[in-house]
Specification:
Elements lengths: L2 H12 L6 E7 L6 H8 L3 E3 L7 H6 L1 E6 L4 H10 L5 E6 L3 H9 L3 E3 L5 E3 L5 H7 L5 H8 L2 E7 L5 E8 L2 E8 L3
Amino acid sequence: MSTEELIDAIEEKLFSDDGMNVFAVLDGASVSGLLDKLYDLSPEFLCLFKGELSPDMAEVAPYLVKIERDSEFTNWLIGHGWGKHWGIYVLADSDLRALDRHLRGLLLVFDEGGKPLRFRFYDPRVVRTYLPTCTAEELATVFGPVATFLVEEEDASNATRFQLTSDTLKQQRIPITG
């Protein structure tokens, strides 16, 4: 499958729900040069870490990016990042700022002893494993305003669509290639 065919196939899955905004939550630690691309191609984006960040921390921070069909940034993201665990895709009827507020609330979790830990929910390997283990209450917290999480699978020729329906997690495998 050519890069153009891959981009078209994934965009078809991402932009099929009319009225939904499409976002990527990207891991700066996994995407070399992400900040340069964000500034060069100018999609609407926010850093999920708040406050003044050192340049090193800004490079590895997670970013919420609104993506548009057929945009230069979206084409770059899918064409270069699909299958490399750069992040996850989120469909929501929220705007960027409202979704940012929600997702920032997922960044910190506490272990059994009360020690705070960063939760890398934006790593597709993490969210694929985590969501199926959640209780209905946990799912409601994670989803909040999110209608759909679309996550690449280990075998990048497939993705998984996660949706919350009546307190139940719905998982659907979606073939991307072939």
